[in-house]
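Structure tokens please, single chain.
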Amino acid sequence: MYETNLQVIAEIAAGKEEENDHFLRSLKNHDDAVLDAMAQELNVSVGGAISCTDCGNCCNHLIVNITNDEITSLAKYLNMPEPQVREKYIEESMAGNCFINSVPCHFLSYKKCSIYEGRFTECRDFPHLHKGGFRKRFLGTLLHYPSCPIIFNVVEVMKRRLGFIVAQ
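Here you go.
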């Protein structure tokens, strides 16, 4: 029912860049509450049919922002001193923002998260389709369209439901 082959998704996505740009612009003609409700409903149905833990592709592409509390929790989860965790896994920007210092993620092992139970908030929330403000965040969502089966399929179903027609 849904496309899950990452190579096929990437190929289709490459051919739909202009179409997706038109779709992005067409979203201004739709009510934000309707778009949010549709994205959230599709996230549940598509996300229920596609297992993130069978894919793990986001872990190959995302730079994950993390909080200081999450670093403390990671140190406890790994049973390592926090300074050692920071040195080995964390990068800190000049502004004090922290993120995992490797793409793909250090904790990706055979398409699975090796710290799944202790994973970070950004990882738990991805692909962020359950949140409000879908239209305002759609450009960011499109960045993951070629690499996330859930996003890819949600966007394609949305196009059909909204009656989106590609201008020829």
